[in-house]
Design brief:
heterodimer; A: 3-stranded mixed β-sheet; B: alpha+beta
Amino acid sequence: MDPPLVALLLFSLTMFSAVLVVPLMVLLLRPAMDISLDVVRGLLSYPYVAWPPLGEWIIFVDRGDHTLIIVRFKDMGIILNTIMIAFSVTVIATTVGVLVALVSARYEFPGRSLLRIMALVPLLYTPFVNAFVAYKIFGDNGLLYHALLKLGMGYTIEVTYIAGVIVAQAMMFWPIVYLNTLAALLQIDPSLEEQAENMGARGFKLFRTVTLPLSLPGIAAGSGLVFIFSMEDLAAPIAFKVDRVISREIIKAIVGSRDVAFLSIEVIVLAGLLLTTALLWLTVVKQYVSLRHYAMIVRGGRWKPRVAKPGPLMYAIIYLVVFPIVIFSMLPQLGVIVYAFSESWVHVLPSGFTLDHFRELARDPNVVNGLRNSLVYSITAAILIIIISTTIAYVASRIRFAGVGALDLLATSPLAIPGLSIALGLVILYSLGSFKDSLVDPFRNPAVLITLAYAIRKGPFTTRAVYAGLQQVHQALEEAGMNLGASRSRVLFTVVLPLIGLNVMAGAIVSFVYCMTEVSTSIVLGALNPEQAPITYVIYEYVTAGYGGGAFIHLAAAIVTMTMALQILAITISNYILRFRYAFLGV
Amino acid sequence: MAEVRLEGVSKYFGRFKALDGISFTVSPGEIFTLLGPSGCGKTTTLRAIAGFEIPEEGRIYIDGVDVTFKKPYERNTAMVFQNYALWPHMTVFDNVAYGLKVRGYSREEIRRRVNWALELLGLKGLENRYPLQLSGGQQQRVALARAIVVEPKVLLFDEPLSNLDAKLRVRVREEIVSLQRRLRITTVYVTHDQEEAMSISDRIAVMDRGHIIQVGTPWEIYSSPANLFVATFMGRSNVLEGVVVSRESDNLYVVDVRGLRIYGVSRDKLEKGDKVKVVIRNEDAELLEEGGMSPNVLEGRVVRTSLIGFAIQMRLLLDNGETVNVYLKNKTSVSEGERLRVYVSPEDVKVYKALEAVEE
């Protein structure tokens, strides 16, 4: 390495330390200063832990001509609720995700391409609003309730409260498992399965002994992310009126607080709990990822994906189970669009088509201000991301030294670290000591920290694109440059970047879009000074204000519809450039 | 010991005809090699025998039973893949034991048989290793052990040596032959390497563009290639263009190659004036003593010499303007620019009708 490259690397590492490593360490260590037995005892009792659980799992209401079944689940307290929800969502999302991935990877049937596209729709990021649509569908007095009532079978169902959160999140998150599993399945060398068949294995035995173990890294990565995303999710708990979960507890503590001193130790411990769970998962998956490399010992051989024609039973599963699940999961995103274009949706069905909500956006000072803020933060973050991601990816993939593994982990892990924990760590660190009242004090100037947090959190999308590009640039091209006397950084700028420039741009576009839709740090830091808050904070405000379908939620839906269009555009562009379809949506 | 028989097997990939009426019979216990350049259909043939490709036409019989439409797991063949296809998540023991477990053997029996196979292939002590912890040669042996341990009716090899380095390749191929001789399992072997094919096979089928061109023992294929394709595919040779001058005897012809009279044998019926291709193997040329006399004397100037180990390759610019490559032993003192006289005995010169639209 030569001085310019060292400087770039140091800059990148400083950013990671300042925005990720140190704040998270502060978050984990801060409680140690004044933790006491009382605090621990408090965290083990109500409202943090409620044992035995409160309320009812299911309520049957006799309404004369029909019975109403309300599925709601019991309240076990903030900590146990969060874990229980995350666990249930992970189990459901993994089952559905693996099923859909297997079907779409291994069977040839009419509508397969359509299925693959539809399965990606739930991953379109529509902050908050989709959860409200889910609530409209099967929550109190929802579509499901009325549909079953119409059928006149004598009973009807509402899925609300914690049960509603679980269903809504499962609908939102299963495609993450699907994508990761599909990628793993498509990477398995077909001869590994053919060899097993050749040895006499078939059907479920083949799946259990060869296919499943080899796709386990993908499944583990997907379901691990689902677990973390579920713990961090705010939208579904707000929509289904569940306030005893960790994410809402953290937001409740931060919104409206004027000083870091108001943050209770319990809240910091909760954020630390989110973080430790995520880190624990990262270490486990790291094991599997190394196993994944090892699974791909493919040399020579032929590469023809194994696809089969489904039998009658499989056809039934595909069209009667898989398709309905996928279509059902698209409803929240479709509902967002309905909200955006309808005059009102107070009753069962929406009424009136209008473009007023979009016109209103341009006139609303909050929206205009939020959009402008988001654009400034996201563009600045994208520029930082280009510098940091390119540097880290290049150094990690081309230069051998001790600690490369750590560098790689640093570059890819922010995707899996809860944004709420990062945000809280930033708030604590940069409001103390000499940072107080400085440019980075989050209570005065959240803009700086929001931008930096965007750059770190959404950088991995670009890092991955750069990695992919670097894999296609043969090292000999660089060696030829260095052999002729060019320095490392000169080679980077004159040989490597011209070759992978499109990858960098494609990655940066995706990063930019996900910055625009970032929720966790936007809300925590934005709440400290609404004047500097980004658009997602405005959506959050409108959604909570417009609870139950008021005009504000239509406005929020209109904003979100535009960001959805932006995402589709960005993903189409980057997939066109990078020529692989599955890597970028979601995670 | 089982017989493998293919009758008129054709296979399409889309509109591309990968196999065009393939027929052959592999006798019980022999090593039968499918030899040909890449894309000739040899691997597709092998995969059809294993059941990974179902042919559109024709029949495949193993041990007299029609298996054309049987599933791979119903055929009791054992394949060694080009990339070995060792399951990375299983130990050596579990890899080898897999087929036995599927067949429902008792735990005790599995242990006994796996140990036997590992012993046979010199893999004792590696039972608990994972595939990635093994060298290429060891991986290859594990794949072999996994195949033989199930006592298959047919062993199938798909270019099993192509991932090994040159030295190891020779050693492993000898091991495969001696193992096969001991176990006497009917074997179908695919390779594009003619030397490998000749050294291991009882019989060889040379394939080209979905057809079988010639079936025979290695010696038959080498000494009397059925056509220009086989002649040029086996070994290194010179192809010269000429015109038939006369027929000397049953199959011996005189050909004019740009003024040079060449005597050669042909399987084709040739007429005076036919355009022909004359194939002379590099190794069939011999040095002519000073003042010696012989038919088929090639005289010219040495334009290039290169040592290739057991011989020297010389490039001769003949007096008629043709260029030929020859291998010469025991002649180390020739230098570039010198004149040289070599001869080729007429039965080593193969003449083919030029009409055959088979390029080099």
